Amino acid sequence: MVSKIRVTIRKHWVGYAFLLPFALLFTIFVLAPVVIALFISFTNYNMLQPPKWIGINNYKLLFLDDKIFLTALKNTLTFACITGPIGYLMSFFAAWVIDQLKLRNVFALAFYAPSITSGVAMSVVWLVIFSGDRYGYLNNILINLGVILEPILWNLDPAYIMKVIIIISMWMSMGTGFLVFLAGLQNINKEYYEAGAIDGISSKFQELHYLTLPMMRPQLLFGAINSIVGSFGVFDIAVSVAGIPSPNYAGHTIVAHLYDYAFIRFQMGYASAVAVVLFLITFMLGRLVMNMLRSKY
What we know:
The protein has a domain at 66-121 and 159-293: Orthogonal Bundle (MetI-like fold), CATH 1.10.3720. It has 15 helices and two strands. The protein has helices at 2-11, 13-40, 57-65, 67-98, 104-112, 119-129, 137-144, 158-171, 176-186, 190-198, 204-215, 217-232, 236-242, 254-264, 268-293, and strands at 43-44, 52-53.
């Protein structure tokens, strides 16, 4: 076995030489932190004293005694189940429509611009709309229309906090996935559509179903993975809208819970346990999506 590996390395040493820088960076900045976080999750570590091994106590506390974590898990799942699929479909549909326009570059910039702006900055802009007084744009419109009599505290009322976070996140969802979809659409050979028209495809939606979607499996997979990671990693928008902790923990997410224990309470062992759980959730969902969208050829 060792001899076969040596022969393979000698035969393809140039390729392995080019791969080495990426492999080193990946190991140092991705693989090693994951392994270290997994180890720390089984310890009691406050950054001042050496880690003390406590076994699975952090995980027991996380699922059996930490009601705030269960609330954060529920909020994150709710957020992900709404913004993930809808943002994914919106990104693809917008890319599909823009690809058929003459000024596609202008429209692509208009759709992509919000995603390159920080969540904190966008939240500040949106909080003018969702301001809790009569001068907030939304409250002012609803009062003038007679829909409400008193201003609604959009970012303080637990009944509305998550809805506001979802709306802002949906508006910012046209990110990397949108550009990947647009690039994938532009790289499809137009001869396929001509051949499809000869075979009886007569509408844009038939082209989408029989030609576009099958030929965009790699881009669809990449966009789905990005959507999953982005949905479960929501933090800056939630904190900017509702603060940390949010009123009645209505906008508390898993990443906010991790941040609270890691950088406010400095309980790194417990925070690492939260990170491991989040990693496992996103990894399993990612594998599920890969099995659904991976190319069969």
